[in-house]
Amino acid sequence: MTHTILPRAFYDQSTLDLAKALLGKLLVHETSEGICSGYIVETEAYRGPDDQAAHSYNNLRTKRTEVMFGENGHCYAHVMHTHCLINVVSGGVDRPEGVLIRALEPVDGIDLMYKRREKAKREKDLTSGPGKLTKALNITKADYGKSFFQPPLYIAEGKEVSQISMGPRIGIDNSGEAKDYPWRFWETGNPYVSR
DNA sequence: TGTTCGATGTCCT
DNA sequence: GGACATCGAACAC
What we know:
Number of helices: 3
GO molecular function, one term: alkylbase DNA N-glycosylase activity
Order of helices and strands: HEEEEEHHEEEE
Shape: globular
Pfam families: Pur_DNA_glyco
EC number: 3.2.2.-
Mean pLDDT: 96
Protein name: Putative 3-methyladenine DNA glycosylase
Number of strands: 9
Number of domains: 1
Organism: Alkalihalophilus marmarensis DSM 21297
CATH superfamily: Methylpurine-DNA glycosylase (MPG)
CATH architecture: Roll
Strand content: 25-35%
């Protein structure tokens, strides 16, 4: 199994374009237990300084958001309730934007994903949510700041996506008018989308 | 040092 | 459709 890892330069595009471009790409994590991967089928864009729903709204720079002020293509991992969520950093240095990866279509290491996600009954339950996919691939806060263009954690060429749908983002009801921005993207009709 | 609150998932009705 | 578990980060003292 050889994958073509997307180069560093792939991440040098606008955050909205990147959110769409990431659909169909393959997210891979190699661990001592084995390799797990899945096609990205759902993303959300968070546009830093001017986006009330973003953690980096108003250029808020803290220990948590620090990595978003750095280089594109790195990993912004943070803990939400008891789960870990991951973003791909974009926007360029000193512009804190990112793309949240919300759902995957499982490809490799499906048995291992079941083992890590005991509560999942069907394949559809393995990675159909931002907290689910990190558990299935064993991505944690320890991956904060790593890049997505070199093993063991990387994004590679995947499949063609026939049609993309867009709509409001999920779970940000307290974000003023930003809650209505149509910055969530998913592959139309894909059963692994979170909702 | 204490309090508050989520970019969620799961179970229950 | 609703309750709740449970953790770290942010912020107020």
